[in-house]
Write a structure and sequence with these properties.
The chain is mainly alpha-helical and about 200 residues long. The chain has eight helices and no strands.
């Protein structure tokens, strides 16, 4: 007798064993089942049915295990993705900033050469200024067009609409185009804001 190495078990052998055991179990389960006079005593389920049933059970178990793993790891994945996402100020914090804070942001952005952010901060400061004077309540859902139409409805002695129009039109350009904002544009916006503060 030659002594050699042999494999004691393998995945194929295990699957075949499980199929055979499932088939035998199904046979014993349905051994008392008769289809009238159609079958003989040796009636058995077809092999294709047993294999299909076996694989359906396996896929169900894998799907259930996958769902459980998803439920377990979902909070960790969401936390990881949340930390990787760049933080932008929430709309609530944008509205809560004071005029002085907006002006400080504008000055800082202007010093950095970021005229887009500098002009946007002046725009936000002007909206906050209107809200502080109880002329137009600041609302996150309002569009530039809505602000412009509300400004035009205010009596002329209370405000002068041209500076607001300049800031709003500049903000529209910031939002709806990729046009570069120059230092000159920022200077015009700054002068418009200075005029707003004088009134």
């Amino acid at each position: 007798m030659a002594s050699g190495t042999f494999e004691k078990s393998s995945a194929d052998w295990w699957i075949q064993q499980q199929q055979q055991q499932l088939g035998e179990w199904m046979e014993s389960l349905f051994s008392g089942f008769r289809l009238g006079n159609l079958g003989s005593e040796d009636w058995a389920l077809p092999e294709w049915f047993l294999q299909g049933f076996f694989w359906t059970v396996i896929m169900g178990l894998v799907a259930g295990l996958g769902w459980q793993l998803y439920q377990i790891f979902k909070p960790y994945v969401e936390n990881y993705l949340r930390r990787r996402r760049p933080r932008s100020p929430s709309p609530q914090t944008l509205v809560e900033q004071s005029v002085a804070e907006w002006l400080e942001r504008s000055r800082y952005a202007q010093q950095q050469g970021n005229y887009r952010e500098a002009c946007r901060s002046l725009y936000m400061a002007s909206l906050h200024h209107l809200s502080d004077r109880h002329l137009i309540r600041q609302a996150e859902s309002r569009t530039d067009g809505e602000y412009l139409s509300l400004i035009l409805q205010i009596d002329p002695p209370q405000i002068h609409p041209q500076p607001y129009q300049l800031l709003i039109r500049t903000h529209e350009r910031l939002c709806f185009s990729d046009a570069a904002i120059s230092a000159e544009t920022f200077e015009r916006c700054w002068q418009a804001y200075q005029e707003i503060q004088r009134r």
